[in-house]
Structures
1.
Amino acid sequence: MGALQSSPGQHEYSDLAEKTGFSFRQIGVLHTRFKQLSHNEETLRRDHFNEIPDLACNPIRAQIVEAFFDRRNFRENGEGTVQEIGFEEFLVVMSHFRPPSLHMTQEQRESVRREKLRFLFNMHDTDNDGTITLEEYRHLVEELLSLSETLEKNTAKSIADAAMLEVASISMGHMEPDEFYEGITFEHFLKLLNGFEIESRMNIRFLRMDTTTLCK
Amino acid sequence: MAVFGPTRRSSNPRFAGLICGFLLVFVVFVFAASASRDAVAGNNETLRNDSHHQTNSTAHKKAFPVLSFNYDHVRKPFEISLWILLALLMKLGFHIIPTVSNVVPESCLLIFVGLLVGGFIKAIGEEAPILDSKLFFLYLLPPIILDAGYFLPIRAFTENMGTILVFAVVGTLWNAFFIGGTMYGVCQIRGAELASVDLLSCLLFGSIISAVDPVAVLAVFEEIHINELLHILVFGESLLNDAVTVVLYHLFEEFSHAGTVTLVDALLGVVCFFVVSLGGILVGAIYGLLGAFTSRFTSHTRVIEPLFVFLYSYMAYLSAEVFHLSGIMSLIACGVMMRPYVEANISHKSYTTVKYFLKMWSSVSETLIFIFLGVSTVAGPHAWNWTFVISTVILCLVSRVLGVLGLTYIINKFRIVKLTPKDQFIVAYGGLRGAIAFSLGFLLTNSKMKYMFLTAIITVIFFTVYVQGMTIRPLVELLAVKRKKENKGSINEEIHTQFLDHLLTGIECICGHYGHHHWKDKLNRFNKTYVKKWLIAGERSTEPQLISFYNKMEMKQAMMLVESGNAAKLPTIVSSVSMQNIQPRGPARRRAIPSISKSREEEIRKILRGNLQKTRQRLRSYSRHDLLIDPFEDNVSEVRFRRQRVEMERRMSHYLTVPANRQETTPVRKVCFEPEHQVYTYDDSESPRGPTVQPNPIPPDAVSLLSESPQRPNQSGAQRTKVPDEQEEQDQLKLSRCLSDPGPNKEEEGDGSFRS
């Protein structure tokens, strides 16, 4: 559907479009970008990502790159990481950032929310064990503050502690002194970010026109 | 606003009736007094003349006047104060009667009071004061706009900037031309006696009436608490359309004298629009930067800090008005520009002062504006023309609805989060007109049609404020529009907001296009590297945003806990989750100390100490109309508070130490106290704190988040058995942080307060 200029493999696109919800044009643009990043190879590797100059000054660069190679984000219920990804996986990961369409039922909106929060959760839960432990959370805060020159490790720690305490209070309510809060499970994570309106915030604009020459 | 009223005040109807009666009597008295002033002044004049005469003609000595009456020389300030007092008493009165203020928004009640007052003044034959345009634009409007601009939610505003601009500029233009043009058509109808109104006058009228008014929007929307997106859309539109209004107004007024408008003039008008808006923003930004720069040096003269904020902003407004630039946009730009830097520089008290004064002034201004509006309605000469007025009202509604629908259709193509029909309805319905339209109409020089225009404007204002203002609340509930979510200041949300920002910027990079997030990120980095160094004093300039947020939150918590004597009343989540539950269990329970900078600590210490020394503290939360009552106030009695204060002072001097090189932890929300007797039997080996810093085999002392039953980590010895009784007593007292505070007296206390 739609007028595609000479784009090869249109039948492939329809599969992808159905799977990810992008339009053909958007897929075309992203394919061009994929080829640009991978230097016209078939697969992308981590060092391809590390070549993007603008990404270098991003404090959470490592996590973002990791997210692309995390099989949990491929919607196939897989686990673990891979070393290289093809265009389909690239697209699937990108589709997490697609804005929800205007006419959606409440359940659809809810499932979009869960999906996006799941993506965030996977980014935090680096050891794949299903919970975000205090260490992982501390690591997250440290990464966020890593750009500041006057980073004091203890401040990062106390912020992470405070945040964890808050999660525990919200999720567990009452705990005996010798109970131990293992970590943030996905359900707790959902509860924590309940008012965050992630479905309207975690979106970027996917263009239908090719502007890839601007940003390497 | 009125939600909290009933819970606290007695709903005794007789009491309420008494108060109302009293107020009414007072009002009558006030106006009798000010009305009779002229009579007395006249009397005084004659008296003085006579006495003067007498002393001239006869050389007799006049008796020394024990009591004399000379009203003239205090007349002006007296009247102004009287008016303001009246306005505030009215406001007070409304909140005493809970039932009325729940249904009717305050603006309606105030206009009604103004009508009454105006009627009264007219009845006694005096000339009622009219809402003078100079008074309005120079004195009454700036505080409201500054308040709005200073506390503008930047994130929501910039994210929706495109939408807001489209609504403000294109929407207002559409409104002005549609109303103006159609009114001209209406005026051509024979039999309406409106043939004298030409096209340019109609367009002028259209431009006056088309702008959504920020004062009215604020007054009504403040009470209905809709979600942030809608609020910022309508409110942002009302602020930014000022530039359009200014340009159109001056354009049409100039040319309504000349009679014709050529193409060149139209083009000049477009150029003028850009000059007015961008110039206004530039002027505001310059003053804002100046203000921020000045605040960098105020560390030694904290008392005058708030004044800088107010004066620089007011100067920005006035300077813009000198060049006929948009004063409102200048004021907004100044507030927005100044705020992040000033807040990093000024002391906590100054921040509270700025906040408080802005809310206070804007509240008074708003009240006065609405009352004057009512008075002016009664006072001014009116020229009622059924066709004109009715068609104006209808056209305003129609053009607003059409404009919003049409523009949203176009805007939705470009928005990521589309506007639903419900949103569109609220945006259209929230297009209220207010006092700005009235004042602009008042400034018209062509008196022939001025009064007819004024009547129509007043009718539209009344219609929007009363009908739309009163029905918007039930409509919002009926349509189940999303309401404003409670902002609990969660550190998790802040962390994730920042995380999301970086994540989206990164994804945009990978996608390969420079989007919204990319530019925001660039701006932030520019801000951090260059601007902050110049405008923020000391080491705060390099403090990341997350840390400042965290510190702010902690300080708030610290203050709240210190001030409350009763833990049960605290509004935060009371849970018994504590640091123990989170820390991974290890052989040596070491906890890291967050080392806060010294100056921060000083500040926190000062606050805690200052609060201890006062007998009563009140923590108020801020909103325009309502100073929420301190929930603790009812229950903290003098006696108990004093006792607790003494105990707390003693405790603080014992337990709080500077975390310099200790292993002791001070994480957040930690409550630190030990039973009283242990203070006096202080034993180095037992207490985890000691001059010898060593790994602590015993888990450190009671740490619990506002819990009623703090835990004793290790049951060792008989002393512990006495503990439970003491705990009950000490439940009342919590400290949120273990900080060093040598206490009100700088000397070491004999009981062994220790500092490392």
2.
Amino acid sequence: MTMFHFFNCAILTFGPHAVYYSATPLSEYDTLGTSVKAALVYLGTALVKLVCLATFLQVSENDGFDPYQELLKALIGFIDVAGLFFALTQLTHRNISQNHKFQAVGLGWAFADSVLHRLAPLWVGARGLEFTWDYILQGLEANANLVLSISLAALGSLIWLRKNKPKTLIPIIYACAGIVATMPSITSYLRRGLEWHFPKVVGFELFTSLVMAFISWQLFSACQRPSA
Amino acid sequence: MATSKKSSELLESMYSVIALLFILVACVELCDAAAAVDVYRLIQYDMSGSPFGSRFAALNHHAASSRFPPGADLSRTVLIIPLRELNITFVREYITQKKPLGGLLFLLPEVLSFKHGGNKQVPEKEKMKKLLAELERLLVHSNIPYPVYFAFENDEIDTVLADIKKNDAMGQPATATTGGYKLVIPTAEPKKVASPTITNIQGWLSGLKADGDANQLPTIAIVASYDTFGAAPALSVGSDSNGSGIVALLEIARLFSLLYSNPKTRGRYNLLFGLTSGGPYNYNGTQKWLRSFDQRLRESIDYAICLNSIGSWDNELWIHVSKPPENAYIKQIFEGFSNVAEELDLKVGLKHKKINISNPRVAWEHEQFSRLRVTAATLSELSVAPELFEGTGGLFDGRQYVNETAIIRGVKLIAESLARHIYGHQGKNVQLFADESSLAVNPAYIRSWLDLLSQTPRVAPFLSKNDPFVMALKKELADHADEVNVQHENLEGIFTFYDSTSARLNIHQVASVTFDLLLLLVLGSYLIVLFCFLVITTRGVDELISLFRRPPSRKVKTA
């Protein structure tokens, strides 16, 4: 519904990323380079995923939930995790504390995801005369995605970058990382298999992202105590 | 120097890519309407300089139903009125008192559509026919300064209309600030149709000339006008007026061509078949066609039978004449028809209407013949002469209002009467075109042509010279007649027509501006809260407070 609506949905989708960057100490330590590099890694990962999906996946006629196809998609989704691993460990960052590194990487990752997946539909659709709730829901989904990406980056940095972890927490860390990594498959199952409506799915995503963020924050601070 | 040249080239290519991207981005405008419907515009024409019909085509206004709150300003609103809720007095009041309105959209029941309606029966036929006739009469003779469109009801439009009625009932007519539905028809300004042509098609079937007979054989003419005129020119199929006449003419041509193909059964009369155009406009085409005749040919015409609406009668047909009934020729024709009618168990009546030469109005086609001193009569189911632009194929004149059996009986009547006159069987009870004979009237032929005609709108200004339908009529007549001629003329100057007869309507569901303002407020506060939350959790409350405190002034330091 005209440029005004487009502007509203755009700030809902991309505003939190900018706010996160400026509000937290990330802006003080000038970690923009890290975020940009993480965004480029996301782009590369997305291309690789596209090629794999095109090669291995069959297009089904009905929009139902096919377990075999979904399993394949989940496996390809782990390429995401590999990309994140690459961004966290292999890229040579300047000397930033681990605390800030994972935040910067997660932020860049989420921003690239939002831009690639949501900017085009927003530009094409939200500017028309027709009004739908879809774009506002998409913006909320982008917010949930931001939180999830940061939690995944946190758990990832715990797994790969921190050497001394309390033994008891390791399985929990891996379990949480697994859940967050398979979130896309879970949401697609909800949408196709259980046939939830879009608002319900977005609500579920927001809820789980907050829960996972809380858990990973607790885990991170728990792991931080021995070295502190 | 080389490097700067290279970099400038690179920059230029970059600019072209960026420009292309911008163009691509600006051009992507997908159809995102809640519903898209085919709509048909009210006719727009000038008669002797006076404007009639709907004078605009483009539409971009909010929609309202007939239950709008009284006293609301409707100058930027389109009223959607389905036919079953139509209140003619209300519409008449709006039009005659020239009240401001953004537009009118009439919804016709789907059964009347020749594309989707099929052959389903129309409920309450007579009532609908009367209502549509009245509406058409009102719209065609008024000058309406806003767009008027017709559309057929379907599920999408019904849901939209129900929604609009609900909104109106709550007292919230749609405007820019309260949301609702917007109707958009993006068409250009309607333009005049340049030099509209009317095409007359004539077929000639030669009679048997005996050796040594120097005189011209007498001719009998059978004429029907094939074009229509209605409130919505894209919907004017005129199945009864005059599709029935055309079908009857073609069938009679077919039967007589069978008879005339064998020299032993060829009659001593020539037969002239005429499919004329320009019927609604005082039979302008017929006049021009007759004027183009050779004087000898005109004098050789014994009589002419014009066919006008013979598709929906039960038991009575009328023969309309302009010469007094005492005239010998008229008596002969009428007696011939009555005798055959008696045998076929139907009635034929005679109606006499004098011609007024000073009055330009020509209500029947035979009047054009009579003005040139040719004996003629019109066979029709109508007992009264129609007014200007009435009975010329309007909104209700579709396939459902025509009866094939009526046309078949009419063809039998005319064919037998003609045959008795040609072969001199007056008074004898001989049936040439009996059922089950090789000369029987073919119902399948009649049905297939009637179906075709009921799907072809035929308003003359919108039929080009080489219109495929006109070519089809010519080809069909050429199959039956010895010689076919096509005559192109210009429609007489007092009529001017405008194009843009159909369009596509997009119905958008829009949200109000206040909604977006509220949304902006909510989002702004959400982002501010998020900012404060993050600052507090990562840097501490002091940082947040320090953001709002001014930095300590230099004076303190130096002091």
